[in-house]
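Checklist before submission:
- one chain only
- standard amino acids only
- sequence pasted in full

Submission:
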Amino acid sequence: MKLKMTLAIPELQEQNTKWIIPFVLIIAFFGLGIQATKAQEKMQAEQKINQLQENIKTKASNDTIEYKGIVYYNNSNEPLPGVEIIVKGTKTVTISDINGEFTIRAKKRNVLIFKYISCEIKELKLKKKPTIIVNLDKIPTPGVVVITKYEEED
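Returned file contents:
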């Protein structure tokens, strides 16, 4: 009887194995299909996010105007190079070139801040006109101050 059982068991195991392999393959196929579907959905979501970001950038860039201008020193015709021009409340900054000229992108109604050593800081509210002429006034100084240090010898 033991002999028959051992012979019968391999036959049963052999029949089960025939069904297990296709069953495992089918489950694996569906599992990969689900993963592929999820990956595809993720890619579509990323594409939509990228499109929305592009739309936002395009809209933002459409709202800005390119302003060009020149900065003069103390109401003269002398251009002022190296002036720092900042769009107030943003990180947008530029510097005037050797001829005192600058170009900056900003929205209408933004405020530009002009900074230069030995000159008063000036703020200018932007309008639709894309050309700007600015005169930076010299900070009034009372005169020359001389500091001398005296030491006593013992």
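Reviewer check: The radius of gyration is 38 Å.
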